[in-house]
Specification:
Elements (H helix, E strand, L loop, with lengths): L1 E7 L2 E9 L9 E4 L4 H12 L4 E2 L10 E4 L1 H5 L4 H7 L4 H12 L5 H10 L7 H9 L7 H10 L3 E9 H11 L3 E10 L2 E7 L5 H15 L5 E5 L5 H6 L2 E5 L3 H6 L2 E3 L6 H5 L11
Parallel strand pairs: 5-6, 5-9, 6-7, 9-10, 10-11
Antiparallel strand pairs: 1-2, 2-3, 4-11, 7-8
Helix pairs in contact: 3-4, 4-5
Length: 278
């Protein structure tokens, strides 16, 4: 077993190398003493740079429940921003989206403001947007299909819209989809929403409900990128930040920085030969 020291801002952090890369794997497992996760993350970043990693006290374990955000997590786009482009409003709406994801604006207020700006947009533009612009992030389907094959329930929960999420959820293979609903009348968006809002607390409630149904001691993983994902990231057994905003990254136990969601499987110890790519 190798030993080492990581120097972080005048603090020496000792670690043991438990597992080194082999067989084409890039996974390196480090065992630290009892220190704060933030210090571990800083040490890892200092020594290895931005990388995919999880900090846990008892080893990263296969979850029974996997909950994921959609926009900029399972897919590479913010759906409302792309849809706004069909109304010539992308820059304006994207600026609001960014501030909401940074936690600078109340989520529900920002959502209603953006939806109101889309009043009169043909519903058919959603189909066009899905076909022309919305794409899963690398490794999304592999991650979800492989987790499902190992008995994990997979839930896509989004502050975005069922018009998009139902299609994305089916493409990637999620068991369940939870999201907001755009109101449509006469084939056009009314600028309003139907039903209760899926916000940060609703995301957390979905996580807690699914974990309760999975049974006592069920392990959960939640992944997201923005401030709206922080409550579910904090409530999960393991919260993971995907190419995330600073606030979400700070709240998480793990980070995926490479952009490939299948890295989460490697961190869980799943051999690449067992990944389900279909």
């Amino acid at each position: 077993m190798a030993n080492g020291l990581l120097a972080v801002e005048d603090l020496d952090v000792g670690f043991d190398v438990v597992r080194t890369p082999d067989g084409g794997s890039e996974l390196l497992e480090l065992q630290f003493g009892s220190i704060e996760p933030a210090i571990v993350f800083n040490a890892i970043k200092h020594h290895f740079g931005a990388c995919d990693c999880v900090v846990s006290s008892g080893g990263f374990q296969m979850p029974r429940v996997f909950i994921s955000d959609m926009d900029s997590t399972m897919i590479g786009q913010e759906c409302i921003d792309e849809l706004a482009d069909y109304a010539g409003l992308k820059d304006h709406i994207a600026a609001i989206t960014e501030r909401a994801m940074q936690g600078e604006l109340d989520f529900e207020d920002a959502l209603r403001e953006r939806v109101a700006l889309l009043e009169g947009l043909p519903e058919s533009d959603i189909t066009r947007c899905l076909e022309e612009r919305i794409r899963p992030n690398p490794g999304a389907r592999v991650l979800v299909q492989t987790l499902k094959a190992r008995g994990c329930e997979t839930v896509l929960v989004t502050g975005g819209f069922h018009h998009f999420a139902d299609v994305v959820g089916e493409q990637i293979g999620f068991d369940r989809v939870v999201g907001n609903r755009l109101e449509v009348a006469g084939g056009k968006l009314t600028g309003k929403l139907e039903g209760p809002i899926v916000d940060s607390q609703a995301k957390r409630r979905v996580l807690e409900e699914r974990v309760a149904l999975a049974g006592e001691g069920a392990i959960s993983v939640a992944i997201g990128d923005g401030a709206n994902d922080i409550p579910m990231i904090e409530a999960a057994t393991y919260g993971v930040a995907y190419c995330a905003k600073p606030a979400a990254r700070a709240a998480a136990d793990g980070r995926i920085e490479s952009g490939d969601l299948s890295a989460l499987l490697s961190l869980l110890g799943v051999p690449k030969s067992d990944f389900i790519a279909d």
